[in-house]
Write a structure and sequence with these properties.
Elements: H1 6-16, H2 23-43, E1 51-56, E2 59-63, H3 76-82, E3 92-98, E4 104-108
């Protein structure tokens, strides 16, 4: 039973490997994966989908979403970040996207 979140789908498949094969076990695995990831996302905004950059002084780190993790160094956003002067941004955690012109767009991550 696919969802819109690839993390939930992957977690549900793994959970389901440990359960008897029936519709109810697949549904249970999806529900458990959804609950576990929602709880983790609530306490750690860096787990949420999308690229996140943490800026501190003149350094940065980039967290990639699941779809980029197989080959992070080939990620176009990673390439664009290499030319960034991190001192142009305030220290903190940012959501990062590339626009149609290949420009970096930063949005501050607000934590609850």
């Amino acid at each position: 039973m696919p969802t819109t979140d690839p993390r939930i789908d992957a977690a549900a498949r793994e959970l389901n490997n440990y359960l008897p094969n029936s519709y109810s076990s697949v549904r249970w695995a999806t529900d458990m994966a959804t609950a576990a990831l929602a709880a983790a996302d609530a306490v750690d905004p860096l787990r949420k989908p999308g690229h996140r950059a943490e800026i501190s002084g003149d350094t940065w780190t980039l967290q990639h979403p699941p779809e980029c993790r197989a080959d992070m160094l080939a990620c176009p956003l990673n390439e664009a970040m290499r030319s960034l002067d991190p001192t142009c941004l305030a220290d903190g955690v940012w959501t990062v996207e590339l626009d149609a012109d290949k420009e970096l767009n930063f949005t501050p991550v607000v934590t609850p």
